[in-house]
UniProtKB/TrEMBL annotation, chains A, B, C:
It comes from the Bacteria. Residues 42-126, 175-260 form the Carboxymuconolactone decarboxylase-like domain. This is Carboxymuconolactone decarboxylase family protein. InterPro entries: 4CMD/NDH-1_regulator (IPR052512), AhpD-like (IPR029032), CMD-like (IPR003779). It holds the Pfam family CMD. It comes from Streptomyces bluensis.
Length: 271, 271, 271
């Protein structure tokens, strides 16, 4: 019998709990990844189970769908992650994220990291969908309103005055870049209705964190996350989720940015 | 009949114009990429056409050759972009960039991002050249002058006093690193005559922007771009081009750096 | 007869010396890479030989094992470097780094860049080990002490007060992230005994430099490198080694951080 207070029993418990969560999210795939590490790096498999799954995926504050969306965003941003994206797009489907939400999460990232990262991830998503026998009813935006006008509305609603400041600050040097932010990022992309504003911000914050060198944009989009109804604790959970996929340095830098945003709004993190 | 002033007609026009430019640059490849997205992400294909091609590639200020060189530089820097590099090295050839210029643009990037990114891109270039049936007459540098001496001359001509300051600032901590910058970056690499100084700076600015975490070096090389004859508007166009490949955050950070460089020189951006 | 003082003789000497070192480290593989570039970019092959091998790998201050460990760390961090990792894990084995050290160097990087980069590199390592006919006796940590307790001990020993400050600064916003740093990064990972503390810091500093946007973490880990017995000159050598794999901008930024750390400790770089 394991005694719950001894360290070794606690370790066993973490491993078993992690393996159960991993199984729930990935079927046999998760155990296969752990087994495949047994030949040269068995402890690495154990760390995946204990730290990524028992410690992080099992945390409260975000549900498994939200954690998978954040993970997919971080992996897409990181690049050179096709096999991990395969695993986590599969897991996202298993925990109930819809194919359309996965596609929309990736489309949402175009303004933040350009087409290549997104097109690579879409290619992975297509293969995983086929593997699941999922047929996607592709969604197509049909909105005749002026792109600038609807973009400006979205910009103010999501980013508030801060978004307008960014756009205005570009007018002396690159008015067209300012226009593209309004028309494309907010008129075309943010305008899409198939992923909730909260989930869009989750994915954005996770992806910007993993991408690196994005502190000013993280400040804007952590603010936007709060604006659309995420709590400070949910923002911190999103960052915590990214730790397993992009490491502590990226996340600690993002935490510093989050703290500044919370302090300006007199918010504290209460889980 | 479409009425030219209605938003939907304007949207059609952007799509048709984008598709025409994409076709001019890529033959059937471009349409194939758009078609391949129809199953799960049709709007993503539309955004490629409308935003990347109708909005960005069709802009004045840089010609298609310059835009493709900037794009190739950004993609090489980003990494995990073999399929996009295949597409854009092919497009670069179609719009008239020579194979030697493409190779030289990549060789030029070694000091900025090391051998791996460049060797990966060279492998892609070789495959595209073979696909085009292009035979490259490989160019080989033959210059007996002392590498340090010719490097120092190039450094002063291109970067001005700022370049010397960077080199001097290293002498207390790493004099050899300073020497490599002079001998290798400027004596070996910048010394090569097969890509114009303006195009070298275009590629450098695009690549540094996409690479990320390069603000001090971007300041030096935006300055160098001005020194070799690019206008502020051309620098901003180069950054605008990168948006489609590395996203707004990288580009907005680079715009901030560009503004500081322009202000120090009392330059304004006049298209 | 070459006259040793003429520039052309000196160039020949660099090439021959570089080729000899490359051969020592890679057998026929190195020459094959150089030959493969002869068709479109012969000078690029020459630069690999002359700059990466004759100038950098041949430097004093770090031995070839340490240089290969730093290189493997930088390549793993950079991503999209499977072919370069294949080459340098092979070279690491040839110069005497043990398979277990290679695996441990990669496992050590999980907290710094997450699982995906490490799992990709482990896959490459497995293939190289198989190619060498090397059988790895996988090492498994077995330590019943409380993870937090042993982690806190390691943290103080390696990072000193600075490590505790980082952990404390997280307590208001993310106490669990602070706990994971202690339990996982220092209790699980740093606690592993199969790679020396000096080599761990070499790999960490090289990887953080190549990863980018890690200035605060580089400051901590350059400090830790000094704490475990590396000299300032060895830290600078590690950064110099990274230049060939991630370019000058990343390294110049890291040099700036290193200078600040050295100055705070009143250390100068004496080779």
């Amino acid at each position: 019998m394991n005694e719950p207070d001894s360290p070794s029993a606690r370790t066993d418990t973490r491993y078993e709990r992690g393996l159960a969560i991993l199984g729930e999210m990935s079927g046999a795939r998760g155990a296969a990844i752990v087994d495949a590490l047994a030949d040269i790096a068995p402890d690495l498999g154990r760390f995946v189970v204990e730290w990524a799954y028992a410690d992080i995926f099992d945390r409260p504050g975000l549900d498994l769908q939200e954690r998978e969306l954040a993970t997919v965003g971080a992996l897409a941003a990181l690049g050179d992650t096709a096999s991990q994206l395969t695993f986590h797009i599969d897991a996202a489907l298993r925990v109930g994220v819809t194919p359309v939400e996965i596609v929309e999460a990736l489309v949402h990232l175009v303004p933040f990291m350009g087409f290549p990262r997104v097109l690579n991830a879409i290619r992975v998503a297509r293969a995983v969908f086929a593997d699941h026998g999922v047929t996607v009813d592709p969604v197509v935006m049909d909105d005749d309103r002026d792109r600038y006008e609807r973009g400006a509305e979205n910009l103010v609603r999501i980013d508030g005055q801060h978004g307008l400041d960014v756009v205005d600050s570009l007018k002396d040097i690159s008015p067209d870049l300012a226009r593209y932010i309004v028309e494309f990022s907010f008129g075309d992309i943010y305008h899409r209705p198939w992923l909730s504003p909260q989930r869009k911000q989750l994915v954005t914050v996770a992806a910007l964190t993993a991408f690196g060198d994005t502190a000013p944009q993280l400040a804007v989009h952590i603010g936007a996350a709060l604006n659309v109804g995420l709590s400070p604790a949910q923002v911190v959970e999103t960052l915590t989720q990214v730790t397993a996929y992009a490491g502590f340095p990226r996340v600690l830098n993002a935490i510093r940015t989050a703290r500044e945003v919370f302090e300006k709004r007199n918010l504290s993190v209460e889980p």
